[in-house]
Specification:
Shape of chain A: globular
Number of strands of chain B: 2
Order of helices and strands of chain B: HHHHHEEHH
Largest sheet of chain B: 2 strands, antiparallel
Distance between the termini of chain A: 17 Å
Number of domains of chain B: 2
Number of strands of chain A: 21
Number of helices of chain A: 13
Strand content of chain A: 15-25%
Radius of gyration of chain B: 16 Å
Shape of chain B: globular
Number of domains of chain A: 2
Helix content of chain A: 25-40%
Radius of gyration of chain A: 23 Å
Strand content of chain B: under 5%
Strand order of the largest sheet of chain B: 1-2
Structural class of chain B: mainly alpha
CATH architecture of the largest domain in chain A: 3-Layer(bba) Sandwich
Distance between the termini of chain B: 32 Å
Strand order of the largest sheet of chain A: 6-13-14-17-12-20
CATH superfamily of the largest domain in chain A: FAD/NAD(P)-binding domain
Oligomer: heterodimer
CATH topology of the largest domain in chain A: FAD/NAD(P)-binding domain
Largest interface: A-B, 53 and 51 residues
Largest sheet of chain A: 6 strands, antiparallel
Chain lengths: ~575, ~140
């Protein structure tokens, strides 16, 4: 039998692929590993500073604006491709009825360049929704099995957290920790402390509201060769000094350990051996090559570590096994919205990280039988997407109906100061149930390389809508308990939502090949040498930002892969 | 750049002093998008006698002519944010240096985003009068 080109071919150099490649490259006699990645950006500080400059000079400052000048952005379509980077989803073909509103970066390091760095763990009940509440499905693994990998993921990403507050997570949810956080929590802002004073200890629906610091992949002190946070206030879309973790950290380390990287490689399909089930070849096209012709490599094992949309797309493009009928299905996000208001005194947003504190008590409870749970964030970025300070400036100086300048000079300055410094948002990020009918399929429409674009069928179910309504109700009632708060909005559920950028589901894990695509290690039920990493394998969404769970699962998968190699 | 543009900018933004080089850069950008409107406003402003209440007279000028009010709005916007809106609705973005110089940030006691490193944890404190004095 001919020898494979590599022991391991990994498709996608985001946080999952980077951590897996790094872990397997450690120690003597590491396997021969190839990373295939579409992007072509640098991983050094010069690249970071170029991203920062692009951001500062961008007319529209969205979550992808630092990355719009990359050559790859001109060739590889992404959810924000097009003439107006503020308009989402010019890449997805949205079949509706509801819009899937999250996006991602197709670059080395993936979307961790532009994430906020929030890293709450799942809680034990998140893995057992079916057993506990009779909805959705249980995971094939639980908190206990993942806990040691959470600790390792937190060491690798560099998580700042508060060990005393962690005891509260254990008391509320049984979410114990076997290891302390690698470093102390990020300090709350001046405004966070005012909010704590106003609402801590409130009783709502039998729960005691407690504003706590949020575990974050952001350095509160120098860690792992990276500086402490210097409060640039642009966690999304770019951290200027790398105090916030991104996957460039482990990509650099993997490349130092002889892991090979093939840039500009858009994987087009995985080929199955004739008459068998093994993946025999990985086909890709170099978008910078004159003919962009197909090339192939082979690996004893192949790892799909794109994201939940790109991995499912590739699976479908390749015509791989779909015995369960679940491939592409169960696409999820954390539907998020917020209640905003003016705090009675200045809370001084836009100083430091975009969020430092959270309210966790609504992540679990018997209400989950009929209504999704949610996490809450105390924003430190004003009104977020609802009214940027630039919009405040304009509304305070300009009267559109009569085309008049109504304020200027010091009067305008004072009005802007009085409004913006009091802006507070309490946001809620909700649990969406998996549904087979919320799915990624292949569109008839093609991207610039002639590859079918992902078509998304997506509908919010009542369980998920109730979570949005309940989150709104809690956030609004919290504002009601702040004496002197004004302009509280909305005062009733609107069922509007934003995407959280948390793309989950589509290649779910499980023990039964008739109902799941991969096992708990991400190993395909039908293709013995194929693994899937990333939030694709999630069974349910939890309420937690997914990255630290993606990292923990990837490190666990890496152990299984090591065993096979 | 006409010297009156700098004086006009001070009245519109509420600042006692503004950077002259920056004023030249902003004038050029605005003039490329709104040539006749900007010339008309600067000329109208220059004709206001200095000894009278300049702000009140400027307000009368702007209220009398929406064309002038519109360019005044863009002058304020570029000084505060480093960007402004062209007549066709598109956005005219500035340089990184201009972004850092936006007047909005000191008004809300925040450092220009992505631009100004502060000491760790500065956000825990109530800001001093102008950011940069403590955090810079």
């Amino acid at each position: 039998m001919p020898q494979d080109d590599y022991d391991l071919v990994i498709v996608g150099a985001g946080v999952a692929g980077a951590l897996c490649a790094w872990r397997l490259s450690q120690g003597p006699n590491p396997p021969r590993i190839l990373l295939l990645e579409e992007g072509d950006n640098g991983l050094d500080d010069a690249q970071r500073q170029a991203f920062v400059k692009t951001y500062m000079e961008a007319a529209v400052k969205g979550s992808t604006s630092p990355y719009t000048k990359l050559d790859s952005a001109k060739v590889i379509l992404s959810p924000e491709s097009g003439s107006n980077p503020a308009v989402l989803n010019q890449y997805f073909v949205e079949a509706g009825p509801d819009l899937y509103k999250s996006n991602y970066l197709r670059v080395l390091g993936g979307s961790t360049w532009t994430w906020r760095g929030n890293t709450p763990r799942f809680i034990p009940s998140d893995f057992r929704l079916k057993s506990l509440y009779g909805v959705a499905d249980d995971w094939p693994i639980g908190y206990d099995e993942l806990e040691p990998f959470y600790c390792e993921a937190e060491r690798q990403l560099g998580i700042a957290g508060n060990d005393d507050e962690a005891k509260e997570w254990e008391r509320l949810f049984g979410a114990y920790r076997s290891q302390p956080f690698p470093m102390p929590n990020i300090v709350p802002s001046y405004g966070d402390r005012l909010v704590m004073r106003a609402i801590n200890g409130l009783e709502l629906d039998g729960k005691t509201v407690q504003v706590m610091t949020l575990p974050q992949a952001r350095n509160s002190q120098p860690y792992d060769g990276r500086k402490e946070c210097e409060g640039y206030a642009t966690c999304i879309p770019i951290c200027p000094n790398a105090a916030k973790y991104d996957a460039s950290v482990h990509l650099r380390r993997a490349l130092d350990q002889q892991v090979e990287l093939r840039r500009r490689a858009v994987v087009t399909r995985l080929e199955v051996e004739p008459g068998g089930h093994k993946i025999s070849k990985v086909w890709f096209r170099d978008w910078s090559a004159p003919d962009q012709g197909e090339q192939s490599v082979s690996g004893r094992l192949v790892v799909l570590a794109a994201n939940a949309i790109e991995s499912a797309k590739l699976w479908l493009l390749s015509g791989l096994g779909n015995r369960s009928g679940q491939v592409g299905g169960n696409l999820m996000d954390h539907l998020a919205d917020e209640v905003t208001g003016l705090f009675p005194e200045p809370v001084y947003p836009f100083r430091g990280p975009q969020s430092n504190c959270c309210i966790e008590v609504f992540r679990d409870g018997p209400f989950r039988r009929t209504c999704g749970a949610f996490r809450m964030t105390v924003g430190a970025d004003g009104w977020g997407r609802k009214e940027h300070p630039f919009a405040t400036l304009d509304r305070l100086m300009w009267s559109a109906p009569d085309q008049r300048l109504v304020r200027f000079g010091r009067e305008l300055q004072q009005a802007v100061e009085a409004r913006v410094t009091r802006m507070l948002r309490l946001s809620y990020s909700t649990e969406q149930l998996p549904a087979k009918t919320n799915r990624v399929t292949l569109s008839d429409q093609k991207d610039t390389l002639g590859i079918p674009r992902p078509k998304l069928e997506y509908a919010l179910d009542d369980y998920s809508k109730r979570a949005l309504a309940y989150g709104q109700s809690v956030a609004r009632r919290l504002f009601d308990h702040i004496p002197g708060a004004t302009e509280i909005d909305p005062i009733q559920p609107t069922f509007g939502y934003n995407g959280a950028g948390h793309i989950m589901g589509t290649l779910r894990m499980g023990t039964n090949p008739d109902t799941s695509v991969v096992d708990s290690y991400g190993r395909s039920h039908e293709h013995p040498n194929l693994y899937v990493l990333g939030a694709s394998v999630f069974v349910t969404a939890s309420t937690a930002n997914p990255t630290v769970t993606v990292a923990a699962l990837s490190l666990r998968s890496a152990e299984a892969i090591w065993g096979e190699l | 750049m006409p010297s009156d543009f700098l004086r006009l900018s001070c009245v519109l933004t509420g600042e006692e002093e503004l950077d002259e080089d920056l004023a030249g850069e902003y004038f050029d950008r605005l003039h490329a998008a709104y040539p006749s409107e900007l010339d008309a406003l600067v000329a109208g402003f220059a004709a206001i006698p200095a000894e009278l209440g300049v702000a009140a007279r400027l307000k009368e000028l702007l209220d009398a002519d929406p064309r002038l009010a519109k360019i005044a709005r863009q002058i304020i916007t570029v000084w505060f944010t480093s960007q402004f809106t062209r007549p066709d609705g598109s956005s005219d973005a500035g340089t990184a240096e201009q972004w850092k110089s936006g007047l909005l940030w000191p008004v809300i006691h925040a450092p220009a985003p992505a631009a100004v490193p502060g000491r760790y944890g500065y956000w825990a404190d109530r800001p001093v009068e102008r950011p940069g004095e403590l955090e810079g």
